[in-house]
Amino acid sequence: MTDRQPTAEAMAAAEYRKSSYSGANGNECVEVARLGRQWACVRDSKVTGGPVLATPAAAFGHLLDALKGDRL
Predict the structure, then answer these.
(1) φ/ψ (deg, to 5) at 65
(2) Which of 6, 36, 64, 72 gives 10 a disulfide partner, CB atoms 3.0 to 4.6 angstroms apart?
(3) Order of strands, edge to edge, in the sheet holding 17-18?
């Protein structure tokens, strides 16, 4: 991957996974995929063909760390 934002095709073809904290019925969560080392993509699990948020993987990692540390 390059520093350029991933294409819609690359984001749609990525392998997404749901959070282990998803509800029992699994329909109230987001899915996350990594594209290379540089990008994290997030989408609504109920609308898998809908919009995707692509963010630098490092920034997404900082967000997760803050959430885990209850700093948000």
Answers:
(1) -60, -40
(2) 6
(3) 17-18, 30-35, 39-44, 52-56
